[in-house]
Design a protein that fits this description.
Elements: E1 5-11, E2 17-26, H1 29-40, E3 45-48, E4 55-61, H2 67-78, H3 85-92, H4 95-102, H5 107-121
Antiparallel strand pairs: 1-2, 2-4, 3-4
Helix pairs in contact: 3-5, 4-5
Organism: Yarrowia deformans
Domain Homing endonuclease LAGLIDADG: 1-95
GO molecular function, one term: endonuclease activity
């Protein structure tokens, strides 16, 4: 997961937050379908347009229903990441708590610094 996974948060101007987990694997559609079932009891795998190889992507939207998010968190707490991707995961894993503590307040002012920090880590 370290090399091919992505923890994503997108902040839209209409104050909408998208929280996603994505995983790419070459020629491993069945593996990704099984991962999708593990995390959310459904599969959301599709073939990406690539040159020369079949690359499949598991893409999971984790909000507003936080069940798949919780399952992903539980998985990575048990099987921790080994690379600097762990830093991205640490920010990403705090989103739900920040959201739930601030959902009737100014949530977006709290979450925006986390999103900016993730962007800096990806540079």
């Amino acid at each position: 997961m370290d090399a091919e996974g992505c923890f994503s948060m997108s902040f839209y101007t209409n104050e909408k937050l998208a929280v996603r987990f994505m995983l790419d694997q070459a020629e491993e559609e069945m593996l990704l379908n099984n991962m999708g079932m593990l995390f959310s009891n459904m599969s959301s795998v599709y073939l990406r347009n690539t040159k020369g190889k079949d690359i499949y992507r598991l893409s999971m939207d984790c909000n507003p229903n936080w069940d798949s998010y919780d399952n992903i968190i539980n998985y990575f707490e048990k099987f921790s990441l080994k690379s600097n991707k762990m830093n991205n995961y640490k920010y990403w894993s705090q989103v739900k708590d920040v959201y739930l503590m601030n959902k009737n307040k100014d949530f977006f002012s709290k979450i925006k610094p986390m999103i900016l920090a993730l962007k800096e880590l990806d540079k």
